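Hi there,

I know you've been waiting on this one. I reran it after we fixed the sequence typo, so this is the corrected version. Both the input and the resulting structure follow.
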Amino acid sequence: MNTRMRRAAVAVAAGAMAVSLAACGSAKEAGDKTKESGAAKGDAIKVGLLLPENQTARYEKFDKPLIEKKIAELTGGKAEVVYANAKQDATTQNSQVDTMITNKVNVLIIDAVDAKAIAGSVKRAKDAGIPVVAYDRLAEGPIDAYTSFDNEEVGKVQGKALLEALGDKAKDGQIVMMNGSVTDPNAKLFKQGAHSVLDGKVNVGKEYDTVEWKPENANTNMAGAISALGKDKIIGVYSANDGMAGGIITALKAGGFNPLPPVTGQDAELAGVQRIVAGEQFMSVYKPYAPEAEAAAKMAVALAKGEKAAGTSTVDSGTAKGVPSVLIPVVSLTKNNIKDTVVKDGVYTADEICTEKYAAACATLGLK
Protein backbone atom coordinates (compact mmCIF):
# COMPACT_ATOMS: atom_id res chain seq x y z
CA MET A 1 0.00 0.00 0.00
CA ASN A 2 1.46 3.38 -0.99
CA THR A 3 1.93 6.40 1.29
CA ARG A 4 -1.05 8.18 -0.17
CA MET A 5 -3.38 5.27 0.58
CA ARG A 6 -2.09 4.91 4.14
CA ARG A 7 -2.68 8.60 4.71
CA ALA A 8 -6.24 8.21 3.34
CA ALA A 9 -6.97 5.25 5.63
CA VAL A 10 -5.92 7.24 8.67
CA ALA A 11 -8.17 10.11 7.61
CA VAL A 12 -11.19 7.80 7.29
CA ALA A 13 -10.47 6.20 10.63
CA ALA A 14 -10.67 9.65 12.17
CA GLY A 15 -14.14 10.05 10.65
CA ALA A 16 -13.21 12.99 8.38
CA MET A 17 -12.41 13.81 4.74
CA ALA A 18 -14.95 11.25 3.47
CA VAL A 19 -15.45 13.09 0.19
CA SER A 20 -11.71 13.25 -0.56
CA LEU A 21 -11.32 9.57 0.16
CA ALA A 22 -13.93 8.55 -2.39
CA ALA A 23 -11.41 9.44 -5.06
CA CYS A 24 -8.39 7.87 -3.34
CA GLY A 25 -8.09 4.62 -5.21
CA SER A 26 -9.96 2.14 -7.30
CA ALA A 27 -12.41 -0.53 -6.11
CA LYS A 28 -9.62 -3.02 -6.65
CA GLU A 29 -7.33 -1.15 -4.27
CA ALA A 30 -10.08 -0.98 -1.65
CA GLY A 31 -10.65 -4.72 -2.04
CA ASP A 32 -6.91 -5.39 -1.72
CA LYS A 33 -6.77 -3.27 1.44
CA THR A 34 -9.65 -5.24 2.95
CA LYS A 35 -7.98 -8.53 2.14
CA GLU A 36 -4.59 -7.48 3.49
CA SER A 37 -5.94 -6.18 6.82
CA GLY A 38 -8.22 -9.19 7.30
CA ALA A 39 -5.66 -11.84 6.34
CA ALA A 40 -3.07 -10.36 8.70
CA LYS A 41 -5.46 -10.79 11.65
CA GLY A 42 -6.18 -14.52 11.28
CA ASP A 43 -8.89 -15.41 13.81
CA ALA A 44 -8.17 -12.36 15.97
CA ILE A 45 -10.64 -10.23 14.04
CA LYS A 46 -12.79 -7.35 15.26
CA VAL A 47 -16.46 -7.47 14.22
CA GLY A 48 -18.73 -4.45 14.53
CA LEU A 49 -22.36 -5.40 15.20
CA LEU A 50 -25.01 -2.68 14.83
CA LEU A 51 -28.63 -3.54 15.61
CA PRO A 52 -31.52 -1.14 15.01
CA GLU A 53 -33.66 -1.02 18.15
CA ASN A 54 -34.51 -2.63 21.46
CA GLN A 55 -38.30 -2.29 21.52
CA THR A 56 -38.64 -5.58 19.66
CA ALA A 57 -37.46 -8.30 22.05
CA ARG A 58 -35.66 -10.37 19.42
CA TYR A 59 -32.57 -8.19 18.93
CA GLU A 60 -31.18 -8.27 22.47
CA LYS A 61 -32.60 -11.69 23.42
CA PHE A 62 -31.74 -13.66 20.27
CA ASP A 63 -29.84 -11.92 17.46
CA LYS A 64 -26.99 -10.43 19.50
CA PRO A 65 -26.09 -13.50 21.60
CA LEU A 66 -26.54 -15.89 18.66
CA ILE A 67 -24.24 -13.87 16.40
CA GLU A 68 -21.66 -13.51 19.16
CA LYS A 69 -21.76 -17.24 19.89
CA LYS A 70 -21.27 -18.27 16.26
CA ILE A 71 -18.43 -15.80 15.69
CA ALA A 72 -16.71 -17.19 18.78
CA GLU A 73 -17.13 -20.73 17.44
CA LEU A 74 -15.74 -19.81 14.03
CA THR A 75 -12.69 -18.04 15.43
CA GLY A 76 -11.82 -20.22 18.39
CA GLY A 77 -12.88 -17.46 20.74
CA LYS A 78 -10.24 -15.08 19.36
CA ALA A 79 -12.62 -12.59 17.70
CA GLU A 80 -13.88 -9.45 19.40
CA VAL A 81 -17.45 -8.30 18.79
CA VAL A 82 -18.04 -4.57 19.30
CA TYR A 83 -21.77 -3.96 19.77
CA ALA A 84 -24.07 -0.93 19.56
CA ASN A 85 -27.85 -0.53 19.39
CA ALA A 86 -29.29 2.53 17.61
CA LYS A 87 -32.59 2.51 19.57
CA GLN A 88 -34.53 3.30 16.38
CA ASP A 89 -32.50 6.44 15.55
CA ALA A 90 -30.95 6.51 12.08
CA THR A 91 -28.69 9.45 12.92
CA THR A 92 -27.35 7.59 15.95
CA GLN A 93 -26.67 4.54 13.81
CA ASN A 94 -24.71 6.59 11.27
CA SER A 95 -22.58 7.93 14.13
CA GLN A 96 -22.08 4.38 15.37
CA VAL A 97 -20.70 3.38 11.97
CA ASP A 98 -18.19 6.25 12.17
CA THR A 99 -17.16 5.04 15.62
CA MET A 100 -16.67 1.52 14.27
CA ILE A 101 -14.48 2.91 11.48
CA THR A 102 -12.43 4.81 14.06
CA ASN A 103 -12.12 1.61 16.10
CA LYS A 104 -10.79 -0.14 12.98
CA VAL A 105 -13.15 -3.08 12.94
CA ASN A 106 -12.42 -5.64 10.22
CA VAL A 107 -16.05 -6.11 9.18
CA LEU A 108 -19.46 -4.65 9.99
CA ILE A 109 -22.80 -6.42 10.45
CA ILE A 110 -25.53 -3.79 10.14
CA ASP A 111 -29.27 -4.13 10.66
CA ALA A 112 -30.27 -0.71 9.38
CA VAL A 113 -32.77 1.54 11.12
CA ASP A 114 -33.31 3.27 7.78
CA ALA A 115 -32.11 1.31 4.75
CA LYS A 116 -31.57 4.42 2.60
CA ALA A 117 -30.15 6.72 5.29
CA ILE A 118 -27.40 4.19 6.05
CA ALA A 119 -26.05 4.17 2.47
CA GLY A 120 -23.51 6.96 3.03
CA SER A 121 -22.16 5.26 6.14
CA VAL A 122 -21.84 1.95 4.28
CA LYS A 123 -19.79 3.74 1.63
CA ARG A 124 -17.55 5.35 4.26
CA ALA A 125 -16.91 1.93 5.75
CA LYS A 126 -16.19 0.48 2.33
CA ASP A 127 -13.77 3.32 1.53
CA ALA A 128 -11.99 2.50 4.79
CA GLY A 129 -11.55 -1.10 3.64
CA ILE A 130 -14.30 -2.47 5.91
CA PRO A 131 -16.74 -4.89 4.24
CA VAL A 132 -20.40 -4.74 5.30
CA VAL A 133 -22.93 -7.53 5.86
CA ALA A 134 -26.53 -6.27 5.69
CA TYR A 135 -28.42 -8.18 8.37
CA ASP A 136 -32.19 -8.77 8.36
CA ARG A 137 -32.84 -5.59 6.33
CA LEU A 138 -31.42 -4.93 2.88
CA ALA A 139 -29.35 -1.80 3.49
CA GLU A 140 -28.37 0.38 0.56
CA GLY A 141 -24.83 1.32 -0.33
CA PRO A 142 -21.97 -0.99 -1.43
CA ILE A 143 -22.82 -3.93 0.83
CA ASP A 144 -20.85 -7.16 0.45
CA ALA A 145 -23.40 -9.72 1.68
CA TYR A 146 -26.96 -10.01 2.98
CA THR A 147 -28.93 -12.43 5.10
CA SER A 148 -32.56 -12.28 6.12
CA PHE A 149 -35.78 -14.20 5.81
CA ASP A 150 -37.87 -14.48 2.66
CA ASN A 151 -39.74 -11.34 3.58
CA GLU A 152 -42.37 -11.40 0.85
CA GLU A 153 -43.14 -14.96 1.92
CA VAL A 154 -43.64 -13.65 5.49
CA GLY A 155 -46.45 -11.43 4.22
CA LYS A 156 -47.94 -14.30 2.24
CA VAL A 157 -47.90 -16.56 5.30
CA GLN A 158 -49.64 -13.85 7.33
CA GLY A 159 -52.23 -13.23 4.62
CA LYS A 160 -53.00 -16.94 4.20
CA ALA A 161 -53.43 -17.35 7.94
CA LEU A 162 -55.84 -14.42 8.12
CA LEU A 163 -57.91 -15.87 5.27
CA GLU A 164 -57.93 -19.22 7.06
CA ALA A 165 -59.19 -17.56 10.24
CA LEU A 166 -61.91 -15.64 8.40
CA GLY A 167 -63.09 -18.65 6.40
CA ASP A 168 -66.29 -18.12 4.43
CA LYS A 169 -66.86 -14.78 6.21
CA ALA A 170 -63.89 -13.13 4.50
CA LYS A 171 -66.10 -10.64 2.63
CA ASP A 172 -68.73 -10.12 5.30
CA GLY A 173 -67.00 -6.99 6.58
CA GLN A 174 -63.71 -5.13 6.38
CA ILE A 175 -60.18 -5.75 7.57
CA VAL A 176 -57.63 -3.24 8.82
CA MET A 177 -54.04 -3.52 7.58
CA MET A 178 -51.33 -2.36 9.98
CA ASN A 179 -48.06 -2.39 8.02
CA GLY A 180 -44.60 -1.61 9.37
CA SER A 181 -42.45 1.49 9.02
CA VAL A 182 -41.76 2.94 5.58
CA THR A 183 -38.06 3.29 6.54
CA ASP A 184 -37.77 -0.52 6.73
CA PRO A 185 -37.46 -2.22 3.31
CA ASN A 186 -38.74 -5.44 4.86
CA ALA A 187 -42.05 -3.73 5.69
CA LYS A 188 -42.58 -3.07 1.99
CA LEU A 189 -41.99 -6.75 1.22
CA PHE A 190 -44.31 -7.92 4.02
CA LYS A 191 -46.99 -5.63 2.62
CA GLN A 192 -46.48 -6.86 -0.95
CA GLY A 193 -46.70 -10.48 0.14
CA ALA A 194 -49.85 -9.90 2.18
CA HIS A 195 -51.58 -7.97 -0.60
CA SER A 196 -50.72 -10.68 -3.12
CA VAL A 197 -52.79 -13.09 -1.02
CA LEU A 198 -55.52 -10.81 0.33
CA ASP A 199 -56.38 -8.59 -2.63
CA GLY A 200 -59.74 -9.54 -4.12
CA LYS A 201 -60.52 -11.89 -1.24
CA VAL A 202 -61.15 -9.35 1.52
CA ASN A 203 -62.26 -5.75 1.74
CA VAL A 204 -59.57 -3.47 3.20
CA GLY A 205 -61.33 -0.73 5.13
CA LYS A 206 -58.24 1.06 6.49
CA GLU A 207 -54.52 0.63 5.90
CA TYR A 208 -51.64 2.24 7.77
CA ASP A 209 -47.85 2.41 7.54
CA THR A 210 -46.94 2.50 11.22
CA VAL A 211 -44.28 5.01 12.24
CA GLU A 212 -41.22 3.27 13.72
CA TRP A 213 -43.16 0.02 14.19
CA LYS A 214 -44.22 1.35 17.61
CA PRO A 215 -47.06 -0.48 19.38
CA GLU A 216 -48.43 2.82 20.68
CA ASN A 217 -48.69 4.13 17.10
CA ALA A 218 -50.46 0.95 16.03
CA ASN A 219 -52.82 1.40 18.98
CA THR A 220 -53.63 4.97 17.90
CA ASN A 221 -54.14 3.87 14.29
CA MET A 222 -56.43 1.03 15.34
CA ALA A 223 -58.53 3.31 17.52
CA GLY A 224 -58.89 5.60 14.51
CA ALA A 225 -59.93 2.70 12.29
CA ILE A 226 -62.58 1.59 14.78
CA SER A 227 -63.96 5.13 14.91
CA ALA A 228 -63.96 5.47 11.11
CA LEU A 229 -65.30 2.05 10.15
CA GLY A 230 -67.48 1.16 13.11
CA LYS A 231 -67.10 -1.75 15.49
CA ASP A 232 -69.55 -3.99 13.64
CA LYS A 233 -67.71 -3.70 10.31
CA ILE A 234 -64.21 -4.92 11.33
CA ILE A 235 -63.76 -8.68 10.95
CA GLY A 236 -59.98 -9.04 11.07
CA VAL A 237 -56.65 -7.22 11.37
CA TYR A 238 -53.46 -7.76 9.45
CA SER A 239 -50.65 -6.76 11.81
CA ALA A 240 -47.12 -6.96 10.43
CA ASN A 241 -45.55 -7.90 13.78
CA ASP A 242 -46.30 -8.96 17.35
CA GLY A 243 -45.40 -5.68 19.01
CA MET A 244 -48.01 -3.84 16.95
CA ALA A 245 -50.48 -6.70 17.47
CA GLY A 246 -50.28 -5.99 21.20
CA GLY A 247 -51.21 -2.34 20.65
CA ILE A 248 -53.97 -3.33 18.23
CA ILE A 249 -55.51 -5.85 20.62
CA THR A 250 -55.50 -3.28 23.43
CA ALA A 251 -57.43 -0.90 21.15
CA LEU A 252 -59.87 -3.66 20.15
CA LYS A 253 -60.58 -4.47 23.80
CA ALA A 254 -61.05 -0.78 24.59
CA GLY A 255 -63.44 -0.59 21.63
CA GLY A 256 -65.63 -3.31 23.11
CA PHE A 257 -64.75 -6.20 20.78
CA ASN A 258 -65.74 -9.53 22.35
CA PRO A 259 -64.80 -11.94 20.92
CA LEU A 260 -61.77 -10.37 19.30
CA PRO A 261 -61.39 -10.61 15.52
CA PRO A 262 -58.37 -12.58 14.23
CA VAL A 263 -55.12 -10.61 14.41
CA THR A 264 -51.86 -11.66 12.75
CA GLY A 265 -48.29 -11.01 13.93
CA GLN A 266 -44.63 -11.78 13.39
CA ASP A 267 -41.47 -12.55 15.41
CA ALA A 268 -42.93 -15.07 17.88
CA GLU A 269 -42.30 -12.70 20.79
CA LEU A 270 -43.12 -14.21 24.17
CA ALA A 271 -46.05 -11.83 24.70
CA GLY A 272 -47.32 -12.71 21.23
CA VAL A 273 -47.06 -16.45 21.89
CA GLN A 274 -48.95 -15.98 25.15
CA ARG A 275 -51.69 -14.04 23.36
CA ILE A 276 -51.95 -16.91 20.86
CA VAL A 277 -52.27 -19.38 23.75
CA ALA A 278 -55.01 -17.19 25.26
CA GLY A 279 -56.87 -16.91 21.95
CA GLU A 280 -56.37 -13.14 21.67
CA GLN A 281 -53.97 -13.26 18.68
CA PHE A 282 -54.55 -15.74 15.89
CA MET A 283 -50.98 -16.28 14.69
CA SER A 284 -47.41 -15.08 14.48
CA VAL A 285 -44.59 -15.80 12.06
CA TYR A 286 -41.84 -17.84 13.65
CA LYS A 287 -38.50 -16.91 12.17
CA PRO A 288 -35.72 -19.23 13.36
CA TYR A 289 -33.12 -16.65 14.39
CA ALA A 290 -30.27 -19.13 14.82
CA PRO A 291 -29.76 -19.90 11.10
CA GLU A 292 -30.03 -16.21 10.18
CA ALA A 293 -27.52 -15.22 12.87
CA GLU A 294 -25.18 -18.05 11.89
CA ALA A 295 -25.30 -17.07 8.22
CA ALA A 296 -24.39 -13.47 9.12
CA ALA A 297 -21.54 -14.65 11.36
CA LYS A 298 -20.11 -16.93 8.66
CA MET A 299 -20.24 -14.18 6.04
CA ALA A 300 -18.69 -11.63 8.39
CA VAL A 301 -15.81 -13.89 9.44
CA ALA A 302 -15.05 -14.80 5.83
CA LEU A 303 -15.06 -11.16 4.72
CA ALA A 304 -12.90 -10.09 7.67
CA LYS A 305 -10.31 -12.64 6.57
CA GLY A 306 -10.30 -11.34 3.01
CA GLU A 307 -12.38 -14.24 1.67
CA LYS A 308 -15.60 -14.15 -0.33
CA ALA A 309 -18.97 -14.36 1.41
CA ALA A 310 -20.78 -17.54 0.43
CA GLY A 311 -24.47 -17.12 -0.41
CA THR A 312 -27.17 -19.49 -1.61
CA SER A 313 -28.62 -16.81 -3.91
CA THR A 314 -28.12 -13.19 -4.90
CA VAL A 315 -30.26 -10.08 -4.43
CA ASP A 316 -30.29 -6.56 -5.82
CA SER A 317 -30.76 -3.52 -3.60
CA GLY A 318 -31.45 0.01 -4.79
CA THR A 319 -27.70 0.61 -5.13
CA ALA A 320 -26.01 -2.81 -5.35
CA LYS A 321 -26.46 -5.73 -7.75
CA GLY A 322 -25.85 -9.44 -7.33
CA VAL A 323 -25.19 -9.33 -3.57
CA PRO A 324 -24.40 -12.83 -2.15
CA SER A 325 -27.35 -13.70 0.06
CA VAL A 326 -28.81 -16.33 2.37
CA LEU A 327 -32.61 -16.27 2.85
CA ILE A 328 -34.08 -18.32 5.70
CA PRO A 329 -37.59 -19.92 5.44
CA VAL A 330 -40.32 -19.03 7.95
CA VAL A 331 -43.14 -20.89 9.77
CA SER A 332 -46.73 -19.91 10.50
CA LEU A 333 -47.11 -20.14 14.29
CA THR A 334 -50.55 -20.88 15.72
CA LYS A 335 -51.76 -22.49 18.94
CA ASN A 336 -51.54 -25.86 17.19
CA ASN A 337 -47.76 -25.89 16.69
CA ILE A 338 -46.27 -23.91 19.60
CA LYS A 339 -44.89 -27.09 21.16
CA ASP A 340 -43.30 -28.23 17.89
CA THR A 341 -41.68 -24.86 17.07
CA VAL A 342 -40.62 -22.34 19.71
CA VAL A 343 -40.66 -24.85 22.58
CA LYS A 344 -38.94 -27.66 20.65
CA ASP A 345 -36.28 -25.24 19.35
CA GLY A 346 -35.59 -23.93 22.85
CA VAL A 347 -36.70 -20.38 22.15
CA TYR A 348 -38.99 -20.54 25.18
CA THR A 349 -39.71 -23.17 27.78
CA ALA A 350 -43.29 -24.18 28.53
CA ASP A 351 -42.83 -22.62 31.98
CA GLU A 352 -41.89 -19.26 30.43
CA ILE A 353 -45.03 -19.30 28.29
CA CYS A 354 -47.38 -20.83 30.82
CA THR A 355 -47.31 -18.35 33.67
CA GLU A 356 -50.21 -18.39 36.12
CA LYS A 357 -52.29 -16.14 33.86
CA TYR A 358 -52.03 -18.61 30.98
CA ALA A 359 -51.92 -21.90 32.90
CA ALA A 360 -55.47 -22.99 32.10
CA ALA A 361 -55.15 -22.16 28.41
CA CYS A 362 -51.79 -23.99 28.28
CA ALA A 363 -53.33 -27.07 29.86
CA THR A 364 -55.99 -27.10 27.18
CA LEU A 365 -53.27 -27.04 24.51
CA GLY A 366 -51.18 -29.69 26.25
CA LEU A 367 -48.36 -27.26 27.01
CA LYS A 368 -46.65 -28.31 30.23
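Quick highlight: Residues 33 and 129 are 6 Å apart (CA to CA).

Best,
R. S.
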